[in-house]
Amino acid sequence: MTEHLITHLRHVDIAMPDFERQRAFYTGLWGLTDVGGDTDVRFLAAEGSPERYIVRLRKSPEKRLDLVAFGAATPADVDLLAERLAGAGVNLVHEPKALQTLGGGYGVRFFDGDGRVVEVSAGVETRVHRRIEEREPIPVRLSHVVMNSAQPEATVAWYVKHLGFRLSDTLRIGARGEFMWFLRCNALHHSFAVARGPHVALHHASFEMRGIDEYMRGSGRMLRNGVEKVWGPGRHHAGDNTFSYFLDPVGNTVEYTTELELVDEDTWHPSVHDLTNAEIIDQWGTANEMNEFVAARSFNDVDKGLFVPPPV
After folding, report:
1. What is the rounded average pLDDT for all residues in the chain?
2. Over the stretch 135-180, which tens digit does the pLDDT of each residue have?
3. Least reliable range by pLDDT among 179-183, 230-234, 283-287, 288-292
4. What are residue 185's phi and psi, to 5 degrees?
5. Strands across the sheet with 64-72, in order?
6. How far apart are alpha carbons 21 and 149 in whole angstroms?
7. What is the value of pTM for the model shown?
8. How far is 234 from 228, CA to CA, in rounded Å?
């Protein structure tokens, strides 16, 4: 694929039985705004983002990732992408059509190589957003999502081949080999990444804060409210972004971050960063040790939604 038809990350949609507790966490603690829905589906926006919503919660008997959604510039690009995907044998959930979710638009859904549902859309209505104020510790936007895969090399190759993502950097752990690949669809170092895991699942969803002070204040709010911290606060080397990872009420890992690196497409060359170097793990040296326990918290539960389209 020569053209870069994917422009940006739009939203991540998750389902769970404990719906009300999940909604209360994301709106009452995490800092998102409930902008609509019904008793079983709620759409949550970031005050600093023009996206109509960045997280969709759905009540379901089973915990699953419903889908991850990306943007395209025009409906014609959605059609072109769908034509190429179908021609390459990719299983479409539905052909390009008018979307019935909040914000509307025109989009196509399909299964990636691991069985996740991916949506690409254009013409979605924007929302009136605002500048996040100094010391206001709420997300500006959805920064990136990371997925676990038992066959990560094949998953990375799928996204590069079919969706035109570019590899920014790779992480490895000494002789144990490579375990995370950062992919970009625009100037941000990564909007999507793939981690090696024991099964397919959501690894984490990351939310951009206004700056370092807001990031630390948000992290502190989680700690004061007894939200389980997985890892942080610290600063990654690959991507150069800050990190504080927590568990939401149903065990998904969510991250506060800021200052994700911008990449010059004309000069950037991917590197392999070895986490046996402590400064690669955390430039600041402030985070708790990255050990097997921390890694296992982000393995998450086996995704029950593989190759099964969500009902909405």
Report:
1. 97
2. 999 999 999 999 999 999 999 999 999 999 999 999 999 999 999 9
3. 288-292
4. -125, 0
5. 33-37, 41-45, 55-59, 6-16, 64-72, 117-122, 106-111, 92-98
6. 28
7. 0.97
8. 16
Q: Which of 302, 298, 62 is nearest to 200 (CA)?
A: 302
d(CA 97, CA 279): 47
Is 130 in contact with 138 (CB distance < 8 Å)?
no
Residues belonging to the chain: 312
At 28 the three-state DSSP class reads: helix
If we measure between CA atoms, which residue out of 142, 173, 209 comes closest to residue 295?
A: 173
pLDDT digits (tens, 9 = 90+) for 3-14: 789 999 999 999
Sketch out the chain's domains with CATH numbers. 6-122 (3.10.180.10), 141-297 (3.10.180.10)
| Amino acid letter, 96 | P
pLDDT at 293 (0 to 100): 87
Sign of CA dihedral 291, 295, 296, 297: positive
Position 68, amino acid: V
- C-beta atoms surrounding 61 within 10 Å: 9
Spatial CA neighbour of 290 closest among 277, 299, 281, 298: 281
Q: Which of 183, 66, 68 is nearest to 118 (CA)?
A: 68
Q: Locate 177 and state its tokens.
A: 């080999």
pLDDT in tens, 66-124: 999 999 999 999 999 999 999 999 999 999 999 999 999 999 999 999 999 999 999 99
What would the mean pLDDT of 219-236 be, rounded to a whole number?
Answer: 98
Backbone region of residue 22 per phi and psi (left: phi > 0; alpha: psi in -120 to 50; beta: other values): alpha
Determine the straight-line distance between the first and last CA of the chain, rounded to whole angstroms: 29
